[in-house]
Amino acid sequence: MKFNFSKAAIAATLLMSFAGANAMAQVADPFGTPANSAMPEREIAMSNSTKYVNVAQGEVVKFVSHGKSFTWKFDTFGMQPFSFSKIAPQGFDGANATVYLGTNPLYRGH
Signal sequence span per UniProt (predicted)? Predict the structure, then answer.
């Protein structure tokens, strides 16, 4: 009986670890996700001379350039700066810009 209980405990532990890994896989993309263009909190004009953009975690931003646009939700837990080219459509101005993420007071839990 003891041997079977050990197997059951190991199986339960493995099952829970897989469930946790699956839940983490469904958490936000490292850079955020595309968003509905009708819901941006603000709009940022981009050009090839744009060096950086500052956004907050959870913020929805519409990026515009030469009549083109896309909207992005920065629903990420990460705080590391990254290249704008990671989220921008190919050929969109500002590809060399760096995105800096600021903390959102709602994410702090205070």
Answer: 1-23
- pTM across the whole model: 0.71
Backbone dihedral region for residue 101 (phi beyond 0: left; psi -120 to 50: alpha; all else: beta): beta
Q: Which residues contact 57 (CB under 8 A, 6 or more apart)?
A: 74, 75, 76, 77, 79, 101, 102, 103, 104, 107
Task: Compute the 3-state secondary structure of the chain and give helix, strand, coil in percent, each to the nearest 5.
Answer: 30, 25, 45
Please name each of the domains of the chain with its CATH number: 33-104 (2.60.40.2280)
pLDDT, tens digit only, all 110 positions of the chain = 455 666 666 666 655 655 544 444 454 578 999 998 888 999 999 999 999 999 999 999 999 999 999 999 998 877 899 999 999 999 999 999 999 999 877 766 65
